[in-house]
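The instructor's notes for this session suggest beginning with a concrete chain rather than abstract definitions. Hand out the sequence below and ask the class to guess, before any prediction is shown, which regions might be ordered.
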Amino acid sequence: MGFSPGERAALADAFTSAAEAAAAGILSVYGVADSRPKADGSPLTEADLAAHDAIVAALAQRCPGIAVVSEEDAAATAVPPGAAFILVDPLDGTREFLSRNGEFTVNIALVEAGRPVAGVVLAPALGCAWLGVLGAGARKRGPGSAPWRPISVRRPDPAGIVAVASRSHRDAATDAFLAAHGVAGLRAVGSSLKFCLVAEGEADVYPRFGPTMEWDTAAGQAVLEAAGGSVLAAEGGPFAYGKEGWRNGPFIAWGAPPAA
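After discussion, reveal the predicted structure:
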């Protein structure tokens, strides 16, 4: 038996508080942190580790009994079969963090039965946060002191869709998708911000064919689907979570798909 919409909303509020605690640690070293390579060659910074520690501590207090799978210790975390769990990326877009362009996020999501059903994406340097709860809608806060407001996907312009794509991981398959779908505009953005731009009606589609991990996408998918969008595997089926090794395949994140 899963969580009710009210329980999911309460967990999303807890995720927001945990993400805010992580953001404080990230910003304290923003512009001065350096990195070292992980085993897979991706960068790891002091900010990643500080954010991980802050989130895990906060969730242990607010969400006891729910397994937490974080990028920084996923190999050591076991999730009971069929159980709900929390996916965490303490610092998504480490390359953007190191380049100081502001396009990095903190991602926290609740996964039930293989689907993200509540999630928070917080962009510390941009002063924005996005929250989505399946069955209760999606909201954005910021920039700055701007309060929470509802968001939803938009209907694409018949003259052509607007796409968002990775700033750091663009590939030939993405270019082929964009060419095949008559894209009228393209914006390159880092981290899970791409899901959020589609969710708030600033773009129509986010195709991703390169490698990602489940913690990269779960919170953004929760926000987008709560805002009326969808995330599908490239072949058209559901984009599921809880896979062995936590590795994703290609996907297409749509707002409202254009008419055929």
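Then share the key points. Residues 18 and 55 are 5 Å apart (CA to CA). The longest helix spans residues 5-28.
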